[in-house]
Amino acid sequence: MMKAERNKQAVAVAVATVWTTPDSPRDIDTPALQNPVDIKGWLTGMSLDDKLELCQNNLVQTQALYGTMVEILEEVGDWIKVAIPDQASRKEVRGYPGWIPRLQLKDNNEYTDALEQGLWAVVSRPKAKLYKNREESGITLSFLTRLPVLSQEDVSITVATPDGPQMLKTSDVTVTDGSERKDERTGLRILEAGKTFLGLPYLWGGMSAFGYDCSGFAHSMHRSQGILIPRDASEQARCGKEIAPEDLAPGDLLFFAYEEGRGAIYHVSIYAGGGMMIHSPETIKSIEIIPLCGYKYEKEHCISRRYWE
């Protein structure tokens, strides 16, 4: 393998799936490898067994949203190994690692320069259309896609993108400087953001409004408040403030480990108050709110953490 120079490129599709190796994708994964990507077609085209294989055969690592800057680690043919700085991981100090098709990344100096301007338009609905101009719509963006603001009007915002300046509806975004939103209601806002996705099917490695895995869901709902936490549940459980069971509040994270809590951590949920939790459970299910008491893995609840204060 050829070692690439250390540089960065931007994700140039709505959602880039990050694969374990260039050989990981199967024929049925072709819609997820294109530009423009067809995430909806990919998901609807997979059988339950196909979706289970993503986890069981360790095919997918994570996902990255349009405009996300990734660091180039290696280049091999039509594939680039990247690290995602916004997704902290002990696997790679520079960010979560994995492989993305070359055609889903773009090097655009004007976009890179715009990242320094300080204001971001962040998609606040589950999905939002990007517009090439006032008449022509482009790709559909996921919740939490972040793009630099170039100018603002009453009904639209012009943003920098890897494909040049484009537009978003003002009603589809929140404009922010990217700072953390920590106050006495932050935990409740994390919970309310999560409730938006009730009924959304689980996706192994998912980090978008097209599907989340358990830790991707926890990571993203915290990101909605400007709070960056590690990508994987096992690492999320090592940081933040430990919370005793009697002190749990909405927005706290509950972690579950094998061997009745003594083994490796395998799942995370968000506490919803009143003994309830919201989570993205497993491939055969969708995001749901359920009681912790009586949950099939209740005895494996091992620790709780708080990141929002």
TrEMBL record:
Please, which domain of life does this record's source organism belong to? Answer: Bacteria
Record keyword Protease present:
yes
Cross-referenced Gene3D superfamilies: endopeptidase domain like (from Nostoc punctiforme), SH3 Domains
Q: Cite the NlpC/P60 domain residue spans from the record.
A: 184-309
Offer one example of a GO biological process linked to this entry: proteolysis
**Which Pfam families does the record associate with it?**
NLPC_P60 (PF00877), SH3_YKFC_2nd (PF23795)
Q: Which SUPFAM superfamilies match?
A: Cysteine proteinases (SSF54001)
Keywords in UniProt for this one? Hydrolase, Protease, Thiol protease
One Gene Ontology term of the molecular function aspect? cysteine-type peptidase activity
What protein family does this chain belong to? Belongs to the peptidase C40 family.
- List the protein's name: Gamma-D-glutamyl-L-lysine endopeptidase
Q: What is the lineage of its organism?
A: Bacteria, Bacillati, Bacillota, Bacilli, Bacillales
